[in-house]
Design goal:
The chain has about 140 residues and is α/β, with parallel strands linked by helices. It is built from five helices and five strands. A five-stranded parallel beta sheet has the order 2-1-3-4-5, with helices on both faces. The radius of gyration is 13 Å and the shape is globular.
Length: about 140
């Protein structure tokens, strides 16, 4: 799994405590720098204060106070090219078209294992780097 490691800054937004803790553990053990929040509004405030402080957001679609999709749309207003990896166990068809067609967006269905998480995250970050795009 060494090729799936990194040092990028990841904003993790997940309301289920056990999933949040596991995700943070997986990412930090793989070298990523992680900021974790439990709802969409806290995520927005965290991101809005320092939009350039993150390289990727890993966001649950279903969140209290502000949905993950609405959070993502707000992120796009400030940083159109920032990678966002969405996750959900309740979105069998993935993402709405406007987000699914975004080249800097991906979807990872729950449940997922550590390797799937790291592979999806690394793929999105590497595509962004290869494109040389900054958002």
């Amino acid at each position: 799994m060494s090729t799936l490691t990194g040092t990028e800054r990841i904003l993790v937004v997940e309301d289920e405590e056990s999933i949040l803790e596991l995700t943070v553990r997986i990412l930090t053990r793989s070298g990523y720098r992680v900021t974790a929040v439990r709802d969409g509004m806290d995520a927005w405030h965290t991101f809005h204060r320092s939009p350039d402080a993150f390289d990727l957001a890993f966001v649950d679609v279903m969140l209290p106070r502000l949905s993950g999709l609405r959070f993502g749309r707000r992120v796009r207003m400030l940083r159109p090219g920032m990678p966002i990896l969405y996750t959900s166990g309740f979105a069998p068809n993935g993402l709405p078209r406007d987000q699914a067609e975004d080249p800097w967006t991906a979807f990872l269905a729950k449940p997922y294992g550590p390797e799937a998480l790291l592979r999806h995250l690394r793929d999105l970050l590497d595509r962004k780097r290869a494109a040389g795009a900054e958002g």
